[in-house]
Amino acid sequence: MDQPESDFSGSEIILSKPRVLSGIQPTHDSFHLGNYLGALKQWVQLQDSHDAFYCVVDLHALTVETDPKNFKHRTLVSAAQLIALGIDPNKSTLFIQSQVPAHNQLAWVLECITGFGEASRMTQFKDKSQKAGSDRTVVGLFTYPILQAADILLYQAEFVPVGEDQRQHIELTRDLGQRFNNTFKTSRPVFKIPQPHIVKSIAKINDLQEPTAKMSKSSASMSGVVEMLEPADSIMKKFKSAVTDAGKEIKFSEKDKAGISNLITIYSALTGKTHDQIEQEFAGKGYGDFKIKVAEVVIETFAPIRTKTNDLLSDPAELSKILKAGSAKANQVANQTLSDAYAALGVVQNG
Ligand code: TRP
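Above: inputs. Below: predicted complex with tryptophan.
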């Protein structure tokens, strides 16, 4: 095997792990199977090989109208679920965005170098604002991607694990970081320019009732959305009534058999079995048998997560301690970057 090239042969090299940062909005009482297989499972995998920062982006969730009681619960239940599904606070820095004021502070700075037209071209903003109409669209939705850029740039993140739908926001983040670095030159660039970490092979899970549409909490009905904190019998019921296709073979074909293919994707992601192996395992069996089997592995995966989430929520002092430690570390990193950005801008700072 080739030896890695090194200019430091003989001396000890301490290679720090590459940093990743990602965030998830606490907009619901539970994450769902699509969140889990499409993103969160990958967050867990990355925490060993990377210096991971994960945040519950509650400020972003304020762009959606919420009841204060729900908001508080959803923020905490989101953090608890992340821990329960395997984000280890001893390995990763887990925190709540609003507990790190530098996010808002840097967001303002970045807003001052973002073009109005540039922000207007964000497709998520365009879609959402078109649906709601301009009188019902809040300005926070317009500046949302700039706050997201601040989330990322503050931590000097190298990679941002996200889904394809976030690519444009990461592009904007890169543009803003580069623009700042070029405009406000210092001996060392203020921001690291991050890269999106969009894994093509990652499982994209569709709605069980509408298997050509992504599983999403904003879909018309919850009957095709499987929640992480849902009771086992309810999960089983949803799988049993999953929409399947004409024919009776368990065969992967997104085009002709969207329903069965979605179930195969779920089963494969949870068991590590390939599509071929699954087709063989269920050769000669009916859709009904397969649906039950898929439901069983989902239930098996989610049951311990549900228990652990409830345990964490029943000990608010402990959860709060974990989050406090996370935000202390996050504040340290974020404040250093903010201070460098202010210095580059010529903002007077005390001390
Ligand atoms: N916009 C992201 C989403 O909806 C959430 C998010 C906010 C985020 N800040 C982030 C993702 C920073 C990655 C990095 O999925």
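Confidence is low (pLDDT under 50) at residues 1-11.
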